[in-house]
Amino acid sequence: MTPRDPIAQLPTHEVLNTPPHMGDQDLWAGDRALRHWAAQSGAAAHMGHMAEAGQAFGRDETFEKAAQANRYDPELRAFDRYGMRLNAVEFHPAYHDLMALAVTSMAHNFAWHHQGDAGHVGQSLLTYMFAQPEGGVLCPMAMTYSVPPSLRFTPALEAEWMPRILSTDYDRRDIPAPEKSGALMGMFMTEKQGGSDVRANSTMARPEGAATGNGAAYLLTGHKFFCSAPMCDAFLVLANTEGCGLSCFLVPRWRPDGTRNALYLQRLKDKLGNRSNASSEMEFLDTYGTMVGDEGRGVRTIIEMVNGNRLFCAMGSAGIMRQALVQALHHCAHRSAFQKRLIAQPLMQNVLADMAIEVEGALALGLRVAQAMDNAMSDPAEAALARIGTAVAKYWNCKRCPVLVAEALECHGGPGYIEESIMPRLYREAPLNSIWEGSGNVMGLDVLRAMAREPEGIAACLAEVELARGLHPQLDRALEELKDELGDIAGLEGRMRSVTELLALCLQGALLLRFGDSAVAEAFCASRLGARYRGAFGTLPKGCDLEAIIARAMPG
Predict the structure, then answer these.
(1) Under a CB-based contact definition with an 8 Å cutoff, are residues 135 and 86 in contact?
(2) CB distance 300 to 238 below 8 Å
(3) Hey, how many other C-beta atoms are within 10 angstroms of the C-beta on 532?
(4) Alpha helices (H) along 228-379
(5) What pLDDT score was predicted for residue 4?
(6) What is the average pLDDT across 241-270?
(7) Strand duo 234-241 + 185-188: pairing
(8) Which residues contact 421 (CB under 8 A, 6 or more apart)?
(9) Closest of 503, 528, 521 to residue 394, by C-alpha
(10) CA-closest candidate to residue 482, choices 467, 493, 496
């Protein structure tokens, strides 16, 4: 822990002009924009839970445990001392403390405890807040949150596993799931030869007995190249069945007879960031699994889980950006240069306000998609918006995150570049969500496919932007440009990144204009939708109310 009373008077000099230790943060009460957009998104009934979570997630102790969990990497224990196969991973105690905090706060299942009552919005609020101290723990939280829609394809599995998923007990024991007080779930798709092209998978599945198809037992043989959170209790896995192509299987860590399943961990990945979260390579050899959904429809089955993970990525990136901004604001509010606080310097004000606009736009977009997911069961237009909006928000929030974190790090200068600061960890975490659950190209192509297969999705997005027509000339111009881009089908595939970007910016601008703070909305449209915008921070045009924007973003 950081000393509460460090010594400033050193033998050779006195330590001056350095920011004080930040201490506890209240990630809920101290974030005006978060509370505003939570209420706007229909989560008024969840304010009490979010207030408690925001205090717990933001404690100095939580941030310190996150630092420890990332400093002391997980270790593979493939065998015990007698040579018996364990296929287990050991973690620093701080990791387990963080996992317990996340699970008891419902960071993995809030949506399913509050179906029909802004559950996905509440889930996204928890993601946004927990991502600020620690991203690695969110991986098993994201996958567990995302799996229920896929389980619905096989009611017997849903009935067996949903009570375990709905538990708020963190049970770290490596024992059969029926003996545990709660369970977490993961997803393994990627193979060496395929990467994002999951249809290139080579893992094969054959029936264990006479029964075949949905709900039947199979034995899987093959490999998976990127298996994160391998200590979860069960995993959704893709494998080929003879003559039918890819199918989806639920693969538990333990077989129904109480013996260890054949999940052979080969090694742990030495990753750039997200180091608290174990990511492994795994081989299957007659590994027990139960088919989920119809045979040969594995991608269709597992994509329901992927979509939830993508929203998690979008909101996690927004949370990382928020914490990077908070760190920059704190530093600049206490550091002076040229006889002025940095936060009073005009160009630094432009940088900080510009980052604040980016964070609020990302938050508004992610929560609007979550709100659409909540409304999807009763409103086809909202369901269409949720399907395409997930890819759009995932693409844009995750793309902007590394750029913003780099700018926030630059606000600190040298002190932000040393490991005692949180900034290097945020910087290493920042690119992750853009890579996991579909890279930028995959997201752009998903939007393109949705345009062809579900044109109502694009129609829903355009209708959402149309609601803000007339509120700002730059948005009106951008909307017409977007329509022109969508109508020009020649070479559209090669332009899908720019089309997805423009779609995201139009949605963000419309939301900010209709429901947001006027100073933030004006600056967003004047910059992001203006003709001269190039994406660098600190380039807001004249006339923007920088001080008002910064005041709104300052942690309380």
Answers:
(1) no
(2) no
(3) 8
(4) 298-334, 346-375
(5) 64
(6) 96
(7) parallel
(8) 327, 412, 415
(9) 503
(10) 496
Give the span between the Cα atoms of 384 and 80, in whole angstroms. Answer: 50
Give the three-state DSSP class for 100.
helix
Neighbours of 431 (CB within 10 A): 18
Closest CA to 524 of 539, 458, 501: 539
Please say whether the beta carbons of 225 and 218 come within 8 A: no
Per-residue pLDDT averaged across 322-337, rounded? 97
* pLDDT per position as a tens digit, 450-509: 888 889 999 999 999 999 999 999 999 999 999 999 999 999 999 999 999 999 999 999
H helices of 430-517, in order, are: 432-435, 440-453, 455-466, 473-487, 496-515
| Nearest alpha-carbon partner for 89 in 321, 324, 276 | 276
What pLDDT sits at residue 7?
87
The residues, ordered by sequence, that sit 6+ positions from 33 with a Cβ below 8 Å of its Cβ are 359, 360, 363, 517, 520, 552, 553
Closest CA to 293 of 243, 237, 254: 237
The answer to whether the Cα torsion of 528, 530, 531, 533 is positive or negative is: negative
Question: In this structure, what token pair is assigned to residue 124?
Answer: 């996204």
Q: Does pTM surpass 0.85?
A: yes
And the tokens for 256?
């129904």
